[in-house]
Amino acid sequence: MRIATWNVNSIRSRLDRVLAFLERSGTDVLAIQETKCRQDQFPVAAFEAAGYEVAASGYHQWNGVAIVSRAGIDDVETQFAGQPAFGTPDQEPRVEARALGAVCGGVRVWSLYVPHGRALDDPHYAYKLAWLEALRADAAARLRAEPGAQIALLGDWNVIPRDSDVWDVTAFEGRTHVSTPEREAFAAFEQAGFVEVTREHLPAPGTYTYWDYQQLAFPRDKGLRIDFAYASPALADRVTGAAVDREERKGKGASDHVPVVLDLA
After folding, report:
1. Average pLDDT for residues 187-203, to the nearest whole number?
2. What is the bridge-based pairing of β-strands 29-33 and 2-7?
3. Dihedral of CA 145/110/104/150: which sign?
4. Which of 18, 84, 196, 201 would be 242's cystine partner, CB 3.0–4.6 Å?
């Protein structure tokens, strides 16, 4: 089975590219982030015509997650236990559409869009850390309850775990993504028993998954590695390879992220 994750930065704007990627790559299950649409706006019919079932969660033009699968979709969850809400002074706190889980081909797949954090002194940063901790606690509890469970935590983590995961770490000094609390929150999933399998199979520095649209970041290879896949031990044992589809950052209408692909025995 082939599983992938991709922050598409608007599914309606990039539908043709996503469908072409699925056909070209032979991907069975795709975790999608930043769909940027309500559930009723998600292009379900186009995926069904291509042979994929769809589960989606979205409330408006921001955030939004989905899973498309030709290996079945069962037991859909639109949030994890304890998932924090976020609001502003003029907005009631709400659990955002940032996590969607479903069983696909025997694997509990989570499509995750971790909060950005915005700035170290912004309330969104505290929200981000609380969100990651709640996700870790939920994932750890699932693993304790069923040590042999096959769980994939896939998505845009908005964390740069290592200095080598960014073209120039000094460019992020005093900013989010590289702060010690964020890196510790990311590493805590490994301490909970999960394995970050893309690192295991793609260890080379400079394996980026995101390039900003500004300042010719992609041609200059000013990239970040922020899209990852944490797997439970039973699932990690099945992973035979991983790839970053850099080609999807090229051409007209590309997302600023590229797909990260896992092959399972």
Report:
1. 97
2. parallel
3. negative
4. 201
Question: Minimum mean pLDDT among 1-10, 35-44, 84-93, 216-225: which range?
Answer: 84-93
CATH number, domain containing residue 191? 3.60.10.10
Mean pLDDT of 131-135: 98
Q: 89-107, pLDDT tens digit by residue?
A: 788 899 999 999 999 999 9
**Can you give the residue range of the structural domain that contains 189?**
2-264
Residue 38 has pLDDT above 80, yes or no: yes
Domain count, the chain: 1
Nearest in space to 114 (alpha carbons), one of 162, 158, 57, 64? 158
Inter-residue long-range contacts of 21-28, CB under 8 Å, 24+ positions, other chains counted? 21/245, 21/248, 21/259, 22/50, 22/52, 22/68, 23/50, 25/245, 25/259, 25/261, 26/2, 27/2, 27/3, 27/259, 27/261, 28/1, 28/2, 28/3, 28/69, 28/70, 28/71, 28/104, 28/105
